[in-house]
Write a structure and sequence with these properties.
Shape: elongated
Oligomer: single chain
Order of helices and strands: HHHHEHHEEHEEHHEEHE
Strand content: 5-15%
Helix content: 25-40%
Strand order of the largest sheet: 1-4
Number of strands: 8
Number of domains: 3
Length: 262
């Protein structure tokens, strides 16, 4: 009986000592958290998607408070969240214009054909690594939806073999841009209507042989633009969105219907 009492007292004493030690260590290594960091964390979407370039919402909240990131760093939250963060931080940072993802390809099943029968993981990156692009155009959309899989807003779907973005759902996080192995996706200004739906840089005759809507680098588009917003570089038409006024004249003259006005 005495042994039981002694053992109980010893265990109790050890527990007290350990408790005191934990309290001491906790106080010694305690790090004060800026209240603004907590407030910012509460207004962030909580996706922890990493689109902002940080490990997650906790990390980006700390970076904002530390002055290492702007109030508009979260593309998922967009302008509404940025405004709330500005309010918390007492800043008036200029908010960037909204951008959305755009897929530079129109090589659907009707416009091009297949050359390989791919059997394997339904992932665009796996197809590229295997070197077995099922489509004739090596520059076009593979259509296996790797971009859609990483989209936190479910703004991308595949239609007739080509990824399509819903601009109303897209928040311009850029995750799809980083994921596309063919570099087909870019961020363009929200509301931009005139676009080039191609990324093939082969010569015109080679493009026409594999796709009925591919850019052939004919330069007819450049002659229509009064603002010098469109140019042809390396056989491919490109639009400078900062100069484009969406008049659509280039789209009207494009013989391949590569340039479209949505």
């Amino acid at each position: 009986m005495n042994a039981i009492i002694i053992a109980t007292l010893v265990l109790g004493a050890v527990g007290i000592v350990v408790g005191i030690g934990l309290v001491y260590i906790g106080n010694k290594f305690h790090v004060e958290v800026d209240e603004r960091e907590t407030e910012i964390r509460e207004v962030l979407p909580g996706n922890n998607c990493g689109a902002c370039g940080y490990a997650g919402c906790d990390a980006v909240a700390a970076a904002i408070v530390a002055g290492e990131a702007s109030a508009a760093v979260c593309p998922v939250g967009g302008a509404p969240v940025a405004e709330k963060i500005n309010g918390i931080m007492g800043t008036h940072a200029e908010l960037s214009a909204r951008k959305v993802a755009f897929v530079r390809c129109n090589g659907s099943c009707e416009n091009t054909s297949t050359k390989n029968q791919y059997v394997g993981i339904r992932d665009c990156r796996a197809v590229v690594l295997a070197g077995l692009n099922p489509w004739d155009c090596d520059f076009g959309c593979i259509g296996y939806g790797s971009c859609a899989a990483v989209c936190p807003q479910n703004a991308i779907h595949t239609k007739d073999g080509v990824a399509v973005v819903d601009p109303e759902k897209c928040v311009g996080c850029g995750l799809c841009v980083k994921t596309c192995p063919n570099g087909l996706i870019e961020l363009i200004p929200y509301g931009q209507k005139t676009v080039v739906r191609c990324r093939n840089i082969d010569k015109g005759k080679d493009v026409k042989a594999i796709c009925s809507v591919g850019c052939i680098g004919c330069r007819l588009c450049t002659k229509q633009c009064e603002n010098a917003a469109i140019s042809v570089d390396n056989n491919l038409a490109r639009i400078d969105y900062s100069l484009c006024i969406d008049c659509g004249k280039c789209a009207e003259k494009c013989p391949q219907s590569t340039i479209t006005k949505a």
